[in-house]
């Protein structure tokens, strides 16, 4: 995979300020195995990046500090400190290259919901890896960035790749997949996030109680039918194959999500799913006019705080030339 990073290396002129745009994701399929002895879950997932973007700007600092500020609609729910995933990514990159004297200030313009199951933090980590590798003029390869990304979080490699991809392992083994056409989505957002660990803990209880059948980790066909449908470009074929093994857990923790899902499909969406660990619900629609109708209905629900119409697939982290 060719990332913009390799093309940008050597652009000496952009060494003071680098801007990167990075998308949110929806898991069109998320199959989850029972928790392993190491405490982690093996996954089989089909990611698709949607056209809802955070923008990260990296600026050289004279000292060796790595700092961050966040602005935008969702900024107040993100900590501007070393726990910010964008900072952790920059620290990991600097450590990997042994360049402890390099500093950076990161500004994040946040549009992706926080703790919404749309990989917002992972997106910023991916943007930070790309922006800092260009800003610091590091000799990175796409493989270096993907490797570092996987160490930061399982959704971070996909955020570099974007488009449509199959994720295996903990989600970090990403293989680009063929998808034809564009897809129209309505997103129903909630102001109250859901913590990913609590959703997985609930999933574990459901597996132990026999309420959910987990993925067989070595199942080679976990997402094959969906990938075939995506290659056809037919949203009506894709819709019945959307699925999320964490959906029951997210709905158990937030029962109102069941009402939101039912309302979106009653309003004409082809299908609705909880995105990742929730609480964002994503509705696939046959066309943009259909999506606007579904949005109008969802917007009126008291359980929904914000709605967005977006298309997919979108590119992964990309340099913005201004
Ligand atoms: P995923 O879909 O990958 O499970 P998510 O979209 O549900 O993730 P995030 O928005 O990535 O959740 O946020 C998860 C946690 O990470 C939040 O509690 C937040 O405080 C923390 N976090 C750290 N850095 C960031 C960042 N740059 N943007 C958003 N959240 C961040």
UniProtKB/TrEMBL annotation:
Gene3D superfamilies: 3.30.230.10, GHMP kinase, C-terminal domain (3.30.70.890). Residues 84-163 form the GHMP kinase N-terminal domain. ATP binds at residues 113-123. Residues 227-299 form the GHMP kinase C-terminal domain. Keywords: ATP-binding, Isoprene biosynthesis, Kinase, Nucleotide-binding, Transferase. One of its GO terms (molecular function) is 4-(cytidine 5'-diphospho)-2-C-methyl-D-erythritol kinase activity. It catalyses: 4-CDP-2-C-methyl-D-erythritol + ATP = 4-CDP-2-C-methyl-D-erythritol 2-phosphate + ADP + H(+). Its EC number is 2.7.1.148. Pathway: Isoprenoid biosynthesis; isopentenyl diphosphate biosynthesis via DXP pathway; isopentenyl diphosphate from 1-deoxy-D-xylulose 5-phosphate: step 3/6. One of its GO terms (biological process) is terpenoid biosynthetic process. Signal peptide: none annotated. The active site is at 25, 155. The keyword Kinase applies. Catalyzes the phosphorylation of the position 2 hydroxy group of 4-diphosphocytidyl-2C-methyl-D-erythritol. Belongs to the GHMP kinase family. IspE subfamily. NCBIfam families: ispE (TIGR00154), PRK03188.1 (NF002870). This is 4-diphosphocytidyl-2-C-methyl-D-erythritol kinase.
């Amino acid at each position: 995979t060719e990332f913009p990073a390799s093309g940008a290396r050597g652009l000496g002129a952009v060494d003071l300020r680098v801007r990167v745009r990075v998308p949110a994701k929806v898991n069109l399929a998320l199959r989850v195995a029972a928790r392993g002895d190491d405490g982690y879950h093996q996954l089989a997932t089909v990611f698709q990046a949607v056209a809802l973007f955070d923008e990260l700007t990296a600026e050289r600092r004279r000292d060796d500090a790595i700092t961050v500020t966040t602005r935008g609609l969702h900024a107040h729910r993100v900590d501007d400190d070393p726990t910010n995933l964008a900072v952790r990514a920059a620290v990991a990159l600097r450590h990997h290259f042994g360049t402890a004297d390099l500093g950076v200030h990161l500004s994040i313009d946040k549009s992706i919901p926080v703790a919404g199951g749309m990989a917002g933090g992972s997106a910023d980590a991916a943007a930070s890896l790309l922006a800092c590798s260009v800003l610091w003029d590091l000799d990175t390869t796409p493989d270096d960035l993907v490797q570092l990304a996987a160490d930061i979080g399982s959704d971070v490699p996909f955020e570099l790749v974007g488009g449509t991809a199959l994720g295996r392992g903990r989600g970090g083994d990403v293989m680009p997949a063929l998808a034809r056409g564009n897809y129209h989505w309505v997103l129903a957002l909630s102001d109250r996030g859901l913590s990913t660990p609590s959703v997985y803990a609930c999933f574990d209880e459901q597996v132990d109680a026999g309420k959910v059948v987990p993925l067989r980790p070595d199942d080679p066909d976990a997402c094959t039918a969906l990938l075939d449908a995506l290659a056809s470009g037919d949203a009506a074929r894709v819709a019945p194959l959307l699925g999320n093994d964490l959906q029951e857990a997210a709905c158990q923790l937030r029962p109102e999500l069941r009402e939101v899902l039912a309302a979106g499909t009653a309003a004409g969406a082809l299908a609705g799913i909880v995105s990742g660990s929730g609480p964002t619900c994503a509705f696939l629609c046959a066309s943009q006019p259909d999506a606007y109708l579904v949005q109008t209905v969802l917007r009126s629900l008291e359980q929904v705080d914000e709605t967005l119409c977006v298309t997919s697939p979108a590119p992964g982290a990309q340099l913005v030339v201004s």
